């Protein structure tokens, strides 16, 4: 039996932090792993910036609620769910993802979580597991599933390697160059064709 | 982080085989895991009965398409999906489940599959994995999830034991007596209260 795993941001919804930075106008939130390569340092800085601006979880989720899934994402996801099982593997936090999951009709999502204090302030974040995407693929293979996986960036490459069939969806040029072994799909139509050939 | 796993038949939809038995009028198809706890013995008997009556896959899925989820099931499942992640673990087959999954808004489902011959006859069935429900719980625990599980019958007890928090939903009397260690919920309201206390 086959099962599909996919990334979330850049695949079905826009990059969440980029949108939060744009909508709050806070420059410091535009920093990504390109500027600060250590994810822990980056996340700690992001939380400090939120504190400095007095932004609590609800302020951020209110912003995230205004983000729409990518054009065609819902239809594509609905099509996938009619034809197979899909579990979304994301390095975002469940509290941030929730408003977007609602707009995507609640597909299954495995991700991380935030630590929120009694006043609604984001006190910390909690990565559920190191290499969680890859570990999830391994677990599904252990349940005798043949796993098809797709994503758009660096943090997806370990899961694409671990999957029985892994390929990119809308990756940036530098990622394509660094990982030439993965086939590239760029439109939802190409994605559906690729999945049809694999299911 | 927490995740919920649940059974399907008897929890969100009626027992599929019981419905097929009623709608075809074939008594022998009324047996379930409530009566015969060895699933292999049960399934082999069911397929023999279908063959004897000349019933093919499409005849069965046509009947399944007429089955509705249990009263309140969709609302309960929607409520769960707004509050947590849920993966349904069922010993049914994806070919049978599909029409019901559509009516339940496509929750994630891990189950088994059928072997269908070129003439549409159900030639065999393929259990994806022995003890698949228990194995799925173990896999999710391996992904650092705290697992909450509920189901109604014998084939759920191994998953309820393996889960961090396992309890029954609408179990028959004999199952309650045999497994007194599991708390019993009987209505969706009780189920939601129980989940609320665990999430």
Commentary on this structure:
2 copies of one chain form a homodimer. Chain A contains 9 helices and 7 strands, in the order βααααβαββαβαβαβα. Chain A is of the alpha/beta class and 199 residues long. Chain A has 2 domains: 129 residues, HAD superfamily/HAD-like (Rossmann fold), CATH 3.40.50.1000; 48 residues, thrh gene product, domain 2 (Alpha-Beta Complex). The first copy, chain A, has a 7-stranded mixed beta sheet. In chain A, helix 7 links the parallel strand 5 and strand 6. The longest helix of chain A has 14 residues. The N and C termini of chain A lie close together (9 Å). The mean pLDDT of chain A is 95. At the A-B interface, helix 4, helix 5, strand 3 and helix 6 of A face helix 4, strand 3 and helix 6 of B.
Which key terms come to mind for this protein?
homodimer; 199 residues; alpha/beta; Rossmann fold; thrh gene product, domain 2; 2 domains; seven-stranded mixed β-sheet; 9 helices; globular
What gyration radius of chain A follows from the Cα positions, in whole Å? Answer: 17 Å
User: In one word, what is the shape of chain A?
Assistant: globular
Summarize the biggest pleated sheet of chain A: 7 strands, mixed
Mean pLDDT across every amino acid position of chain A: 95
CATH superfamily of the largest domain in chain A: HAD superfamily/HAD-like
Work out the helix count of chain A. 9
Topology:
The structure is a homodimer of 199-residue chains.
Chain A: E1 2-6, H1 16-24, H2 39-52, H3 57-65, H4 73-83, E2 86-93, H5 94-103, E3 108-116, E4 122-126, H6 132-142, E5 146-151, H7 154-162, E6 165-169, H8 173-178, E7 184-185, H9 188-198
Parallel strand pairs in A: 1-2, 1-5, 2-3, 5-6, 6-7
Antiparallel strand pairs in A: 3-4
Helix pairs in contact in A: 3-5, 4-9, 6-7
């Amino acid at each position: 039996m086959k099962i599909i795993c996919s990334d979330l941001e850049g695949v079905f919804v826009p990059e969440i932090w980029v949108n939060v930075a744009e909508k709050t106008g806070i420059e410091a939130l535009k920093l990504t792993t390109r500027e600060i390569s250590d994810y822990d340092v980056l996340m700690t800085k992001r939380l400090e910036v939120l504190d400095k601006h007095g932004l609590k979880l609800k302020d951020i989720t209110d912003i995230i609620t205004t983000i729409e899934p990518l054009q065609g994402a819902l239809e594509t996801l609905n099509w996938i769910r009619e034809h197979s099982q899909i579990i979304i593997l994301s390095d975002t936090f469940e509290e941030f993802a929730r408003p977007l999951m609602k707009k995507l009709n609640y597909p299954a999502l495995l991700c991380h979580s935030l630590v929120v204090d009694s006043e609604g302030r984001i006190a910390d974040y909690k990565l559920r597991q190191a290499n969680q995407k890859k570990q999830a693929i391994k677990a599904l293979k252990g349940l005798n599933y043949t796993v098809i996986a797709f994503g758009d960036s660096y943090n997806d490459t370990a899961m694409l390697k671990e999957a029985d069939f892994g390929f990119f969806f809308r990756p940036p040029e530098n990622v394509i160059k660094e990982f030439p072994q993965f086939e590239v799909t760029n439109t939802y139509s190409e994605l559906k064709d690729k999945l049809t050939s694999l299911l």
